[in-house]
Amino acid sequence: MARFGPLSISLDPDRYFYRPEEVKLCTEAAFKGDLGQVKKLVQQLLHDPRPPEPRKPEPAWLRGSLHMAIKIRNFEMVRLLLAENVAGEGDMFIEGAVRGRDFESLDGYKQTSPERTPRIMVRVILP
Predict the structure, then answer these.
(1) Residue from 42, 40, 38, 45 nearest 77 by CA
(2) What domains, with CATH codes, occur in the chain?
(3) What is the rounded distance in angstroms from the CA atom of residue 8 to the CA atom of residue 10?
(4) Helix orientation angle between 63-71 and 75-83, rounded to the nearest 10 degrees
(5) pLDDT digit of tens for each residue in the chain (127 aa)?
(6) Are the C-beta atoms of residues 65 and 107 closer than 8 Å to each other?
(7) What's this model's pTM, rounded to 2 decimal places?
(8) Could you write out the three-class secondary structure of the chain?
(9) Which backbone phi and psi does 34 adopt, to 5 degrees?
(10) How far apart are CA 81 and CA 7, in angstroms?
(11) How far apart (Å, rounded) are the C-alpha atoms in residues 18 and 127?
(12) Cβ(96)–Cβ(72) under 8 Å?
């Protein structure tokens, strides 16, 4: 019978679950509709030099802000976040916009990502 030793996998929570404070603050600013604050926080998180952190900031961390911008129908905020590639490669943004019947944001997304238009149309037709 084979014997196995202890697992050597590191379960460092900071490595997998770390999010800078700007992520939470950006979602709160999006909820309030504060475009200026969202711009400032996106700049701080994704573009300004940062001290060493457990993980490099990722645009996808701001998806909550994008969904909040869709929910409150703040088209300028949606465009800003899409320009920062917050939606990423998945269709998460599209699904939220379709469920919320926010077709203005979908039009903006088609304009910023024309190469993905066919997938968007499928999502709109089959929500």
Answers:
(1) 38
(2) 21-125 (1.25.40)
(3) 6
(4) 160
(5) 555 555 555 566 656 678 899 999 999 999 999 999 999 999 999 999 988 887 889 998 998 998 898 888 888 898 898 888 887 665 556 666 656 666 666 666 656 655 554 444 444 433 3
(6) no
(7) 0.67
(8) CCCCCCCCCCCCHHHHHCCCHHHHHHHHHHHHCCHHHHHHHHHHHHCCCCCCCCCCCCHHHHHHHHHHHHHCCCHHHHHHHHHCCCCCCCCHHHHHHHHCCCHHHHHHHHHHCHHHHHHHHHHHHCC
(9) -90, 85
(10) 40
(11) 32
(12) no
**Structural tokens at position 38:** 């969202």
Cβ atoms of 41 and 79 within 8 Å: the answer is no
Single-letter amino acid, residue 100:
G
Residue with tokens 């590191």: 10
Please name the amino acid found at residue 29. Answer: A
Q: Which two tokens stand for residue 40?
A: 């400032």
Q: Which amino acid is at 110?
A: K
Dihedral angle, C-alpha 63, 89, 110, 68, nearest 10 °: -10
In the numeric block, which tokens belong to residue 117?
Answer: 């238009």
